[in-house]
Amino acid sequence: MPVSTTPGTQWGTWINLQGGIFAEPAPVLTADNRVQVFVQGGSNTLYSRTENRDRSWGGWVQHQGSAVAGVPSAVRGKDGKIRVFYRTPDNHLEVITQTAINSAYGAPARIVTNIGGDPAAALNADGRIQVFFRGTDGALWHVRNQGVQYEAYTGAVSLGGGIFATPSPVLDGSGRLVVAVKGGGDTLYTIQQAAANSWDSWESWHHETSGVTTRPTAVVDAAARAQIFYRGSDGAAWRVGQTPNYDSFETSVSLGGGIIDRPTAALGQDGRLNVLAKGTDKALWVAVQKTENETPYSAWESLGGEIGDAHVSPVIANHEGLLFAFTQGSGTTRHLFLQRQTWA
């Protein structure tokens, strides 16, 4: 059976980008619409590869001075420059920033000392970058740009709570950031800005569901409603969707399947969400929303491959709306592999 996907596209063959990676890759779209992916290489080095205009790939680039332990988070700011946030081996939060649009990166800058987990970055409605992370006290903390001075960051501020995995922030259709976290006892909690672009004003924590065994993935659907995906205690993929008024979440719904790691997702060209996950056979599997903004999903279908120990990357759409997913291959080589949509 052909894999269900956005009409007019199909999933291609696996592409081996070589290298040796030790954590989940972090893809981002450059200002000139090329996909760039960052990884933790051997000896805690930060590397990247960038797509060429002819869809081939440039060579590996090591970002000198950057020592990373875990999963980096890459985001393109409103000024067009990419910033890559990461946790250092001695547990500090650092960032490297492009020196100009579509250019190389400058030296790392330390933002926060002593953090308790990997960072996750997202844009405010006004384009300011907010970076969320687990503190050494187990609470959710964040920093942001100071005004529109994209190179300056505030001090870290606690949002409280107790989190047990990297947070997942997303900007919803109301212009407010929603952060989904895995809480104690395999629970899912969310916290939301009280108003668009607010810094100090956040609503109270809200318990959404239980039986959550992985870090959640937060994305938005075609209606810009937050959709949160996670692996349930039954080994299936589950989804919690935001209500139409963007103020709360509905009851969790199972997508079925048998998955090992957290699912990740992105919008296809036709406005349907595509959900990808590592199956129990270590292959990459996909389930697709049957109708834009609706609850039912297709049955899971295999994209093949054999995934290693690292998680599948967040799914990213290129400038044509074609979806890209990066992962670690199996075996001791730990190569970076790419699965992407192509034109049918």
TrEMBL record:
InterPro entries: PLL-like_beta-prop. It comes from the Bacteria. Gene3D superfamilies: Fucose-specific lectin (2.120.10.70). Pfam families: DUF8189. Residues 52-332 form the PLL-like beta propeller domain. This is PLL-like beta propeller domain-containing protein.
